[in-house]
Design goal:
The chain is 32% helix and 26% strand. By secondary structure, it is α/β, with parallel strands linked by helices. The protein has one domain: 3-Layer(aba) Sandwich (Rossmann fold), CATH 3.40.50. Strands 1-2-3-5-4-6-7-8-9 form a nine-stranded mixed sheet, sandwiched between helices. β2 and β3 form a beta hairpin.
């Protein structure tokens, strides 16, 4: 496996603050970006939406905000270039969930990430893949966040998701709000629905992505922080 490593240096500390690697996820060699802050205490793997990739500027913004708070992140392409030419694949939730599970298994085999508590962040159709993966990996996935997601596409897997799940939807994303409300009822673990006022599906409005980032960071801090996993009081309220 070929990795290209770069380091983001904190100018005040004069030492690497984030170790960034270009990685390939087996078995298909899907391209990914793994960023591990110094003293990372948790890890979040991303599942992008239809027509997007590991380079999604919205997901990258969320990932960098998590890095700033000590959470490692993996963004990767869910499909090969050849698979992307078939539009049906971007809505093939079982296939996308398989790829996310493959990524989690790979992370478990890497020394730098194997022991980190794991969360999943899914956008659009990627949110359904994240929920299916959480149902399939109940002992591994500690929290899930959906941004503008289609959790309804997770089907029967919704009834098997016990990981704490946060659904974030734009207040102007009509129709999708209803789908998220119905999905919320079926989730089995701690759960919440956050509606960002006046925001549309991709959250381009001023302040909308900042609100998404704030909700996501708080959720992952609450459920992936070591204090919570040890049974102590969560460090952050939402």
């Amino acid at each position: 496996m070929i990795k290209q490593t770069t380091q983001v240096v904190d100018p005040d500390l004069r030492e690497p603050a984030v170790n960034a690697e270009d990685v390939r996820i087996p078995p298909l060699g899907l391209a990914g970006s793994l960023r591990i802050p110094k003293n990372a205490y948790a890890l979040v793997a991303f599942a992008h939406g239809s027509g997007s990739s590991r380079l999604s500027p919205r997901n990258v913004a969320v990932a960098h905000a998590l890095n700033d708070r000590g959470i490692a992140t993996l963004l990767f392409d869910l499909l090969t270039p050849a698979e992307e030419t078939d539009r049906a694949n971007v809505f093939n939730i079982p296939l996308l969930a398989d790829r996310l599970v493959d990524a989690v298994r790979w992370l478990e085999g890497e020394a730098s990430t194997a022991k980190l508590p794991l969360g999943l962040f899914g956008a659009s159709t990627g949110a359904a893949a994240a929920l299916v993966a959480a149902a399939r990996l109940p002992r591994r996935v500690g929290a899930v966040v959906s941004r503008g997601g289609r959790p309804d596409l997770a089907g029967h897997a919704l009834d098997q998701v016990f990981a704490p799940a946060l659904l974030i939807v734009g207040g102007a994303d009509f129709g999708v709000i209803d789908l998220n409300e119905h999905a919320l009822v079926r989730l089995r673990g701690p759960k919440a629905l956050k509606i960002v006022p006046r925001a549309s599906h991709l959250f381009p409005e001023p302040g909308a992505m900042e609100a998404v980032i704030d909700h996501a960071v708080r959720w992952f801090q609450r459920y992936l922080a070591p204090a919570h996993l040890a049974g102590a009081k969560a460090p952050v309220s939402d």
